[in-house]
Specification:
The structure is a single chain. The chain has a domain at 71-251: Thiamin diphosphate (ThDP)-binding fold, Pyr/PP domains (Rossmann fold). Helices cover 47% and strands 8% of the residues. It has helices at residues 4-14, 25-31, 34-54, 56-67, 74-87, 94-105, 120-123, 148-161, 179-188, 218-224, 236-247, and strands at residues 112-116, 141-143, 165-171, 193-197. InterPro entries: THDP-binding, Transketolase-like_Pyr-bd, Transketolase_fam, Transketolase_N. This is Transketolase. Its cofactor is Ca(2+).
């Protein structure tokens, strides 16, 4: 590293006459955005107040989604769906149970914004209301291509913006490609549902699958991330409850219920 003498000479050559960590007033003034930001926020608030007066229902929905609150009828309708599952038990793959949950909750949650890294038919994260986002930005599903890191990072940005509930999906073995973005989501405490399927010991073979799983110690690595809930369902109801909890995670911390005969939940 440069010593004090070399640092002094460098500053002299650069024409920098200020003390260490001193910010010249003219530079500070150029970067000080408080007044401009306050003016823009005030203008936006005035516009939204007028919008709220003209369109109260739409404004209330916008406010709900930006706050991350759940619709008033969500719990009741989720309970109805779970009751139907219990009344008509079936044996299906956990990723299919996950898709059924998305199918049930999708119409209730217009903020759902799904996507997959080129594996949507295998991850089963498409539902009947899915509409691809391409030239038409009014869709609700993003086909990310083989871009696990890009997918997760983009979903982080969507979550930071607010108003949407992004969910992403790929095979569990590919979580390592997205690891940095996964870690950032956890550190930032952002709401993103990450669906990882095909969780076999034989990585990539289509054996038991779930929204989170056992492959190669990866669930343990996921669990290492503070603020990240890594959950594997042990039955169909467990898979539905995971989606129910994940959809409103910032505002609830209730545990998953036990399911008779279920095994492998963690």
């Amino acid at each position: 590293p440069l010593g004090d003498a070399e640092i002094a000479l460098t500053r002299e050559q650069l024409g920098w006459k200020y003390a260490p960590f001193e910010i010249p007033s003219e530079i500070y003034a150029q970067w000080d955005a408080k007044e401009a930001g306050q003016a823009k926020e005030s203008a936006w608030n005035e516009k939204f107040a007028a919008y709220e007066k003209a369109f109260p229902q739409e404004a209330a929905e916008f406010t709900r989604r930006m706050k991350g609150d759940m619709p008033a009828d969500f719990d009741a309708k989720a309970n109805e769906f779970i009751a139907k599952l219990q009344a008509n038990p079936s044996k299906i793959a956990s990723r299919k149970a996950s898709q059924n949950a998305i199918e049930a909750f999708g119409p209730l949650l217009p903020e759902f914004l799904g996507g997959s890294a080129d594996l949507a038919p295998s991850n089963l994260t498409l539902w009947s209301g899915s509409k691809a986002i391409n030239e038409d930005a009014a869709g609700n599903y993003i086909h990310y291509g083989v871009r696990e890191f890009g997918m997760t990072a983009i979903a982080n940005g969507i979550a930071l913006h607010g108003g949407f509930l992004p969910y992403t999906s790929t095979f569990l073995m590919f979580v390592e490609y997205a690891r940095n973005a996964v870690r950032m989501a956890a550190l930032m405490k952002q709401r993103q549902v990450m669906v990882y399927t095909h969780d076999s010991i034989g990585l990539g073979r289509r054996w038991p699958d779930a929204p989170a799983g056992r492959a190669g110690g990866k669930p343990a690595r996921n669990a290492e991330h503070v603020h990240m809930a890594s959950v594997r369902p042990g039955g169909i109801r467990g898979g539905v409850e995971i989606w129910r909890r994940a959809s409103g995670w910032p505002n609830r911390a209730d545990p998953l219920p036990s399911e008779p005969g279920a095994a492998g939940t963690y």
